[in-house]
């Protein structure tokens, strides 16, 4: 059995558009990890723990979510309901 080492370039790059409650426009974040229930996002100070948001990833738009934790460089969000990971990994539509 051969062991394969995955590098960052082997993986698809996904971004999340996050509309925090009260924000005039969305912030865009790289996605570090993604599951049906939430995500770990790159973060540069735009998000705060407890903030409710709407998130768009791939072909899924306006997912209700909450920021559950924030650390230097990253933040965790929890979706209000499980998402379709296949749709999230597809290229977003031009109108989304």
Fold and architecture overview:
This protein has 96 residues and is mostly beta strands. It has a single domain (12-89), classed as predicted glycosyltransferase like domains (Thrombin, subunit H, Beta Barrel), CATH 2.40.10.220. It is built from 1 helix and 6 strands. Strands 1-2-3-6-5-4 form a 6-stranded antiparallel beta barrel. Strand 5 and strand 6 form a beta hairpin. The model is unreliable at 4-10 (pLDDT under 50).
Name of the CATH class: Mainly Beta
Q: What is the overall silhouette?
A: globular
CATH topology, anyone?
Thrombin, subunit H
Order of strands in the sheet with most strands: 1-2-3-6-5-4
> Helix/strand/pairing class, anyone?
mainly beta
Write the H/E string, N to C.
EEEEEEH
Cα radius of gyration in angstroms? 14 Å
The assigned CATH architecture is Beta Barrel
List the uncertain runs: 4-10
Range of strand content: 35-45%
Looking at this structure, what is the CATH superfamily? Answer: predicted glycosyltransferase like domains
Secondary structure: helix percent: under 10%
Instruction: Estimate the mean pLDDT confidence.
Output: 87
Question: Count of helical segments?
Answer: 1
Q: What's the count of strands?
A: 6
**What is the rounded distance between the termini?**
43 Å
Give the number of domains. 1
The major β-sheet equals: 6 strands, antiparallel, barrel
């Amino acid at each position: 059995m051969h062991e394969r080492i995955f590098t960052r370039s082997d993986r698809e790059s996904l971004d999340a558009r996050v509309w925090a409650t009260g924000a005039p426009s969305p912030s865009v974040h790289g996605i570090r990890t993604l599951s049906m229930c939430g995500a770990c996002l790159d973060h540069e100070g735009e998000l705060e723990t407890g903030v409710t948001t709407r998130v768009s990833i791939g072909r899924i738009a306006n997912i209700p979510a909450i920021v559950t934790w924030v650390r230097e460089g990253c933040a965790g969000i929890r979706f209000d309901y499980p998402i379709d990971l296949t749709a999230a990994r597809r290229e977003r539509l031009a109108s989304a």
